[in-house]
DNA sequence: ATGTTTCCTTTATGCCTCTAAGCAAACTTA
DNA sequence: TAAGTTTGCTTAGAGGCATAAAGGAAACAT
């Protein structure tokens, strides 16, 4: 943190209050209630005043989303760090479980992050995208460390189209992972995150009321693909 | 179809035009552009006129969503019926592929159906819910027929919580399936539909540009769990 | 002490949903 | 066929939203 004058400090406080108010409205009344006007009204300000803090509704939404990403990231890192640095298996599983725990204890927030249909072109330097990448990296780094320390078996050959596509992504990661390992990582990611999204969006309510055991089953299926011992890190 | 007077016919035509206009706006300008006013304007009517056809914005959205479900259902049934009634394996795979094909050739529509956050309490007799159940049944019926004709191995024991939850759902289906089979069905469904949703919502754009081979890989992994021969029904 | 920056206000435009009142054409019925 | 009723639309209007513009007052810098 850079030292700031009083002016700057007050401004930061107001910014934080705006984001907190937006979050409260989201939780209490749903995403549609998070309007510039409503947030300002809650704070005892006039609507247009908020334009001194955010360029518009979309930027406010992006800032709040970034907050959620950061909070989720912190929670996951804390859960991960309850295990020693070398225990990549338990650390990864703890990270996954922390993600789901946060998601279901913060449904409106998680739904807001996930189910935001691509509203506009996403600039890669926006706070939202930066925080999103940090979130992604919690998994990626632990995964890469796991691969470093104890590589697991990967498919001998990949579908040519998949290989081609993943080559660019793998290179952009700069983690020295082989394409095949990245493919395994993404397969697991799709299963885990896909399940979570369906749960939070209520797409499975027709059959389930509590998806915790389904999530654990998913972890149990995924673990051996990474050479992990699920039973050794059961919940 | 019941015989109708001229009056009723004109009304049906206007209803159809409204839904078609709403769909066109969705495709051309995104979901936010589908407003009562915009639809009416496009049709050369005044806004409030639409309230003679739909009780409000939400009902219009529901009607359009039901249209999408019905169209998707028809496409899947047509693809399924290209295979003889007894060939449950190829019929199921064709149904899955038709679902994805429709989804990616109708991204706005599919995204609209899926990513509609639970906007209000859903009444189970609304057109949207009815059409949604028909869609669900295309998979369920073929799956039940497959089980009838050639039961596949199912897990010997289920997590007690999962078993308890699925008992109610299984009973409500009235298809005479065992709970274990329903569990296998839902596991496959979650993987397939979850992947599709992530694709359409752009959640995998960071790594993939074309998910067709990933989808096929998913089918290849799912098929043996249902006792199906993937290679015999490769694309 | 003066000028500038910052914060917030009110005002205004144009969009949205939805209600209400009213008119005219089309049907129904006596 | 004439009167009454239903239907399909209109305009008017209330209230909310995003956003732009203009202005006042306080805080800050010099």
Question: Can you offer a commentary on this structure?
Answer:
The structure is a homodimer of 235-residue chains. Chain A has 2 domains: 1-54, Arc Repressor Mutant, subunit A (Orthogonal Bundle), CATH 1.10.10; 57-226, Orthogonal Bundle (Tetracycline Repressor, domain 2). The mean pLDDT of chain A is 93. The longest helix of chain A has 24 residues, at 6-29. The first copy, chain A, is mostly helical. Chain A has 9 helices and no strands. The interface between A and B is large, with 38 and 37 residues. The structure holds a DNA duplex (30 and 30 nucleotides). Chains A, B: InterPro entries: Homeodomain-like_sf, HTH-type_TetR-like_transc_reg, HTH_TetR, MT1864/Rv1816-like_C, Tet_transcr_reg_TetR-rel_C_sf.
Task: Write a compact overview of the structure shown.
With 235 residues, chain A is mainly alpha-helical. The first copy, chain A, contains 9 helices and no strands.
Attribute tags:
homodimer; DNA-binding; 2 domains; Tetracycline Repressor, domain 2; 0% strand; 235 residues; globular; mainly alpha; Arc Repressor Mutant, subunit A; 9 helices
């Amino acid at each position: 943190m850079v030292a700031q004058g009083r002016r700057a400090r007050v401004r930061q406080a107001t910014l934080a209050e705006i984001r907190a108010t937006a979050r409260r409205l989201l939780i209490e009344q749903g995403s549609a209630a998070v309007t510039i006007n409503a947030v300002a009204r809650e704070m005892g300000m006039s609507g247009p005043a908020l334009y001194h803090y955010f360029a518009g509704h979309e930027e406010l939404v992006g800032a709040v989303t970034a907050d959620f990403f950061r909070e989720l990231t912190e929670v996951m890192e804390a859960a991960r760090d309850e295990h020693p640095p070398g225990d990549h298996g338990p650390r990864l599983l703890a990270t996954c479980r922390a993600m789901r725990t946060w998601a279901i204890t913060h449904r409106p927030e998680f739904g807001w992050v996930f189910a935001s249909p691509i509203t506009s072109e996403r600039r890669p330097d926006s706070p939202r995208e930066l925080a999103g990448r940090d979130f992604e990296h919690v998994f990626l780094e632990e995964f890469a460390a796991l691969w470093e320390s104890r590589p697991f078996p990967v498919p001998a050959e990949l579908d040519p189209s998949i290989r081609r596509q993943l080559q660019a992504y793998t290179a952009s990661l700069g983690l020295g992972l082989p394409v095949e390992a990245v493919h395994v990582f993404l397969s697991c990611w799709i299963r885990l995150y896909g399940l979570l999204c369906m749960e939070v969006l209520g797409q499975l309510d027709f059959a389930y009321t509590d998806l915790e055991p389904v999530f654990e089953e998913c972890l149990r299926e995924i673990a051996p693909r990474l050479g992990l011992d699920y039973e050794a890190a059961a919940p």
